[in-house]
Amino acid sequence: MDRNPSPPLLSRDEEKDEEVARGDCIGSTVYSKHWLFGVLSGLLQIINPENTKSTSGDEEQQMELDEEMENEICRVWDMSMDEDVALFLQEFNAPDIFMGVLAKSKCPRLREICVGILGNMACFQEICVSISNDKNLGQVLLHCLYDSDPPTLLETSRLLLTCLSQTEVARVWVEMIREQPAIYDSLCFIMSSSTNVDLLVKVGEMVDKLFDLDEKLMLEWISNGAAQPLDEPQQNSEEQAVFRIVPCVLEAAKQVRSETLEGLDVYMHILQLLTTVDDGIQAIVQCPDAGKDTWSLLLDLVCHEFCQSDDPPIILQEQKTVLASVFSVLSAIYASQAAQEYLKIEKIALPLIDSLTRALQNVERCEKKPENSAESNTDETKKSDLVADDLHLKILKDISCEFLSNIFQALTKETVAQGLKEGHLSKQKCSCAFQNLLPLYSPVVQDFLKILREVDKTLADDLEKSFPSLKV
Question: I need a surface site. Which of 364, 396, 459, 472 has the fewest CB within 10 A?
């Protein structure tokens, strides 16, 4: 009977070579321990050169990375995404080597790569805990936030965000950051002056996470810079800039606005978190420029960018979280009753009613899913995504309704007449508003109906017939 021939038997030397090769592999990977030792040894030589005397030429050379070394260390950066490699690096005390590089090297590219490798390693919980519990390494990494090199800042922010997202060690980093007030200035400087969108998004995510984790830290950062009276010019502004959190967040939001919805979402959520405390609202509205700039930017977003009349309802699925944050902040500013020109009801009511009713119409359409959609999506991940989508739509709806009810309460007969004339208060829009406001905001709707009846009795009667619960 024919069969495939058996493979030839390995000689003793060949068997020995194969065993050596298997023993040189890192975990279940094909990466070589010997090669990795060589790269790490090369790093040790960079930070501990035999000849400690240096000339100006040597210092210039330290700013650049040898091409071969760069290629090799970049391979380690890629490899470190593998858990076996990351654990092996940890076992070999590679974080200590990287800490030495960060403490001594002036080469921006080398510093960026070392932080990037640590960032990959921190994605694994065991290593993240180890890195976080090393106070010396933690201080060196936080000091990287003062770096002037954008790629290094980006990798540092990514690493810190990874650690802050680990519940077990998040408090450790919050406390270390609180102990270094200069970090606030550094992050504000980046938000207010950087044009690097990737960096701005990552820094925004880190600030957002910090505020979400620790209200006390948020209150401290809100108060920073507030000690200087608003009507007094800043002294020695060239020597020491005084940063206020709200203008810095706004500047970053403007920078990322046209580039990434994800980045804009992050900065709008930071503003929303600020409005959850009274000090945060006051930081926005008490400074005339900050209040006006915030209101103008957000109003422009909802009137000219989000929920446009020609947008298909599905667009709302992409915009729902950022739109909820924007409406929430606008609502908080409006509810603060700050006596500012930009908050006069006759100026803001009609465009906001347009935006809010469009949002509510699209929420309603998004909620009307095909009957068989729930059955067809058997995958658990898809089901959880659908649940999350429904929750975000509900949050957007609740925020929109509360804001709309506050606006309706302030409408005057003159504003209603203008709204009818310009089409802002058509029967369709009023019906949409009533549909969502009732029954929770029934008194508000009834008061609005009284004013509407004075201006357009026919429309008021039609709406009352459509919503029998309004009849007294």
Answer: 472
